[in-house]
Design brief:
alpha+beta; 4 helices
Length: about 110
């Protein structure tokens, strides 16, 4: 299982988890849901206290991935399997993203 913190404008909004069966879960933090001034991170993941489940990486996060030759370069430079969308997301979206969302890997403890 791998996990990543989802930041919206440098504030932690929720947690994205890849389970051992390669499915995904996204959950907003309770404090984020309870704060009426905090928005949802996307239209496809509206702010809610429920968990979102998917058999594949949520389209919102998948669309943050580099494509084509950029993907090849990032994968080769960082030694990431091109089929590892979650690994690529945690590498490509941790610092330099278009938009307000960043994805920060949680190291195994």
């Amino acid at each position: 299982m791998r996990k990543a913190r989802i930041l919206y404008k440098d504030a932690e909004a929720g947690l994205l988890t890849q389970h051992d069966d390669s499915s995904f879960t996204f959950r907003y933090h309770t404090s984020w849901v309870d704060d009426s001034n905090k928005p949802g991170i996307s239209l496809s993941l509206p702010k809610s206290g429920k968990e979102y489940h998917s058999k594949f990486l949520f389209p919102f996060f998948y669309n943050m991935l580099p494509e084509g030759s950029n993907k090849q370069v990032v994968c080769k430079y960082n030694r990431i399997d091109p089929a590892d969308d979650f690994g690529l997301l945690m590498t490509a979206a941790k610092n330099d993203c278009i938009g307000a969302i960043r994805v920060i890997q949680i190291e195994n403890q």
